[in-house]
Write a structure and sequence with these properties.
Blueprint (H helix, E strand, L loop, with lengths): L1 H8 L11 H4 L7 H21 L5 H19 L4 H14 L15 H8 L2 H5 L8 H19 L7 H23 L4 H24 L6 H25 L17 H18 L3 H21 L2 H17 L4 H24 L9 H8 L6 H19 L34 H18 L1 H15 L3 H23 L6 H24 L2
Helix pairs in contact: 3-5, 3-11, 4-8, 5-8, 5-10, 5-11, 8-10, 9-10, 9-18, 10-21, 11-12, 11-13, 12-13, 12-14, 12-20, 14-16, 14-20, 15-16, 17-18, 19-20, 19-21, 20-21
């Protein structure tokens, strides 16, 4: 009881302190320096190994994998859970999954990518071990977090977060068992559910390890720093290697999933600017947003602009009636006129970097390329598959029905009938109405919790975090609809983080109201 009262109201007779510098400006959080040091060390070591010995020498990979494992153990096993969670988050969103990188050139981060996200069987030759090191790191952080809550009851995570992740995990297991029992293929089903299985484990790890409001500044700094760092990496790779391939169909520089990180970074900055409107902060925020937009434009992924387009609409609808909302209405009216003119005129200008975002955004509305045509056909086939078993679905381990085909991509992606681009329709075809509802439920609930934090947050930092979580939830749904978001490690990490933070802050608001 004493611990709970102390956590809610502070120590008896304690003097209430004012907001700290980190609370006022998360862009100057004291965890920024360790994050940047981690990024620099990972990039330098990975580039040195990748560009000298490569990633095909099994002995080198074993040494690198063991060294990486020792680092993760020293971080997760030795440091406080909340410190380990910060390091884990920074590493997970800075390193890219090797299966998502372009094949036209070798990424300098290839060694770090494969060490963290490739299966231990492929990377280190461990027989039968098809899980990556990241999966075990999530389990380790989850265990540390649970251990910490037993020592300090004030760190106990909110029930709604635990129940949501647990329900997702149980529903996933039931659909997997159902599909295999009905004759589904075990190996393809494993690759269908690997990231889906990792998401709730990663979410529970963050939910138990992060403490609550006191970690918000560090989380915001890590996400924004990673977005800026990855944008700089996009620019470097574009200049060094990628520019020569820019006319290739489906061209991109790093990964499709970087769109999620860029949108998350921009959202976190905008959320903070809405709560702290002063000249110095505005200039910082605008500068960081412009730096991230460079990566968005050069990486050439249309879904990033779709997510950024949905975000202001959802934010506007989520705001309570207030003078700020009325001023925002007037501002949006002006921005809407200017933005419409920019996109309409810019889409007609075929050259120049200034209008590149306009051309990419408008191409979403006028999709005439082969990729867009194949996606339309894929959607038709997925709907046809859903009609074959609309209530409960076939479960995992089954191909979707390919009645129409545009091109045969089996040589490039053997599992394309098991893992389509449109994850939402695919999940519906796999689970039917019942299975889809059980697995999809977590996503709208995450957005709802984020909106509640926006409206009930005690401090500007908490309200900004709620808006950031809402943006991540929107971007996750967009990514899952258009670009295999259910099979992206970056997407699952950011979503599990957003849900964990939103659940924690809702619990804090509930405790304040008694």
């Amino acid at each position: 009881m004493q611990a709970r009262v102390g956590a809610m109201y502070g120590a008896f007779g304690g003097k209430q302190s004012g907001p700290t510098k980190e609370e006022l400006d998360p862009l100057v959080d004291n965890h920024l320096r360790p994050t940047l040091k981690l990024f620099g060390a990972v990039a330098a070591i990975s580039a040195a190994l990748t560009l000298t010995v490569g990633t095909t020498n099994i002995l080198v990979n074993i040494v690198a994998g063991l060294a990486f494992s020792v680092f993760l153990y020293s971080t997760i096993g030795r440091k406080p859970a909340w410190v380990a969670a910060r390091t884990m988050l920074a590493l997970a969103i800075f390193v890219e999954a090797p299966t998502e990188t372009p094949t036209w050139w070798t990424s300098p981060l290839r060694m770090a990518d494969t060490a963290l996200y490739a299966s231990l069987k492929d990377f280190m030759g461990v027989p039968g071990m098809s899980l990556p090191l990241f999966f075990f790191a999530c389990l380790g952080l989850f265990w540390r977090g649970r251990k910490a809550t037993k020592k300090d009851v004030t760190l106990k995570p909110p029930r709604i977060g635990v129940r949501l992740f647990s329900a997702f995990l149980i529903s996933l297991g039931l659909l997997e068992a159902s599909g295999i029992a009905r004759g589904g293929q075990i190996t393809p089903s494993f690759f269908q559910i690997l990231q889906l299985l990792t998401m709730p484990i990663c979410g529970l790890a963050f939910l138990y390890a992060f403490r609550g409001p006191e970690d918000l500044a560090a989380i915001g700094s890590i996400v924004v720093s990673a977005a800026v760092a990855r944008s700089a990496y996009v620019l470097i790779m574009y200049v060094v290697s990628a520019a020569a391939f820019k006319n290739e169909e489906g061209f991109f520089v790093t990964t499709h999933s970087d769109s999620m990180l860029f949108v998350a970074g921009i959202t976190f900055i905008l959320a903070f600017l809405l709560e702290h409107r002063n000249k110095k902060t505005m200039l910082k925020g605008i500068g960081l947003i412009l730096a991230i937009l460079v990566g968005v434009a050069l990486n050439n992924r249309r879904l990033a602009f779709v997510s950024l387009g949905f975000l202001p609409v959802m934010v506007y609808l989520s705001l309570k009636p207030s003078p700020i909302k009325r001023r925002l209405t007037r501002a949006l009216f002006i921005v809407g006129i200017l933005g419409s003119a920019y996109f309409m005129i810019g889409s007609q200008i075929k050259e120049g970097a200034v209008f590149a975002p306009a051309r990419q955004a408008m191409s979403v509305l006028n999709q005439t390329d082969t990729s867009s045509e194949s996606r339309d056909v894929e959607n038709y086939n997925l709907i046809l598959t859903l009609k074959d078993s609309p209530v409960v679905g076939h479960g995992f381990g089954w191909e979707y029905i390919e009645k129409l085909k545009v091109t045969d991509i089996s040589d490039l992606f053997a599992l394309y009938l098991y893992i389509p681009h449109n994850g939402v329709l695919w999940l519906w075809s796999v689970g039917g109405v019942v299975g889809f509802a059980a697995l999809w439920f977590i996503y709208p609930v995450s957005a709802t919790l984020a909106v509640r934090v926006m409206r009930r947050g005690r401090t500007p930092m908490e309200r900004a975090a709620g808006l950031g979580c809402l943006g991540v939830s929107i971007a996750t749904v967009t990514q899952c609809w258009g670009d295999q978001g259910f099979h992206s490690y970056l997407t699952l990490v950011l979503f599990s983080l957003a849900l964990g933070v939103a659940a924690r802050l809702n619990a804090v608001a509930d405790a304040e109201k008694g």
